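Weekly modeling sync, notes
Attendees: AB, CL, MP (scribe)

Item 1: holo prediction request
CL wants a bound-state model with flavin-adenine dinucleotide before deciding which constructs to order. AB pointed out that an apo prediction alone won't tell us much about the pocket. Agreed to run with the ligand included and paste results into these notes for async review.

Input as submitted:
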Amino acid sequence: MSYLLYCGGMGSTCEVAIVGGGPAGSIVAFRLAQIGRDVVLVDKGPAHRGKCCGHCLNPRALDLLQQAGVLESIMPLASGRTERLRVLEPGSTPHLEASLSRHPRSRQSHHSGILLRRDRFDQALIELAREAGVRVMKPANARLESLQERGGLLRIRRPDHDEEVLSARLVIGADGVGSQVARHAGVRTTSGRKFGFSFDVPATGDTVEPGTVHMYLDDWGYLGLVNEEGRVHGAALASSRHPQREPMALLRHMCHRHPGLESIIGDAVSGHDELELIGTGPIPWRVTSVYGPSWALVGDAAGYVEPFTGEGMTWAIHGGMLLADAIAQSSGASWGAEAGARYARLYRTHVRSRQGTCRLVSGILSRPRLRSFACRTSRTFPMIKDRFVRKVLVS
Ligand SMILES: Cc1cc2nc3c(=O)[nH]c(=O)nc-3n(C[C@H](O)[C@H](O)[C@H](O)COP(=O)(O)OP(=O)(O)OC[C@H]3O[C@@H](n4cnc5c(N)ncnc54)[C@H](O)[C@@H]3O)c2cc1C
């Protein structure tokens, strides 16, 4: 079936073309292939490339992966559990500890989250999608040529292949922050003034306790550290308004402000070790609509706020499942106004609302006085703190 006329280059058609093979794109692809839809997934990354991420997958993400039927293949890839959160303010203020586990009486099957390297996670999901029948093109760069009422046209570039033209009834933008599909679709997009970066350093001397997520707060942003298979993995969010915009300068600045941090990453940031940074941004990224007549957005592409609560992948997985369900429920042609509106409604209820809470938490943390007040109050009323952490970070 040809959805659009194409001209020039080798051509093929499909029902759904997905740009981006992160958790969002792969989950939609997997779910649609399972119900017999004709899906092509295009991802530009080389097979084993990491991403800017803290590698923490919370219990809610595990519930969702179980619901999607992929958890069994993912769990063996985990490199540890995330059981505790330690929040550290600058200076020698006592730190704040909280459990990252669900209430012991919770009926949900997963009580704590896991640590999962992104190269492993993303690749595993892509393989599951491929096994379910998705045509995967990776590494391949997709350029959106046109979007019309009846479908979209993509130009695909792959190493050692002629340029291909792919015509699809529905184009899904799962291409992350700054989404090309969103910009091409003509929705209003806005991006903020923050950027993220992540890195790995060998664990030497003082290190991060296994099972504990260390969050170092600062006026320019925050840095999360975890112990991952004997290495320290770090992920940070920083404001580009800060005079020291360069990531290494920011990390050095942070080592001065946090006495314990120097002994964990000091060698790496002072240049004795080589530090490879993976960056992303600008953040936040917002779009005014998540669907149109021939397109839909999911995951970060549909809007991303802050990484503090470590649930971006949960939003991506959940969004992917909601979108696949909306497509599955639509009769006849795979996409229409009704299905789009249903997806937008569910997306607002389940994903946008949680992003709002995350924005609020990050807003408090970025204001030193509010931050100190919140930390002091949490120390005085530990039960309120535990409830709050469970509600915001775990449930
Ligand atoms: C500092 C930081 C720390 C974070 N820590 C955590 C955490 O601990 N836990 C958590 O759950 N979330 C975390 N996140 C958020 C999380 O990384 C994202 O929300 C998640 O990756 C979103 O998944 P996605 O599938 O929407 O997009 P992505 O994972 O970004 O995938 C997009 C894909 O699109 C592909 N692509 C883009 N353009 C094209 C193109 N033109 N052609 C082909 N392919 C294309 C890219 O190669 C990429 O694979 C963090 C974010 C930051 C910034």
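Recorded for review: The chain has two domains: 10-82+115-190+285-364, 193-281+369-394.
Action items: CL to compare against the apo run; MP to circulate these notes.
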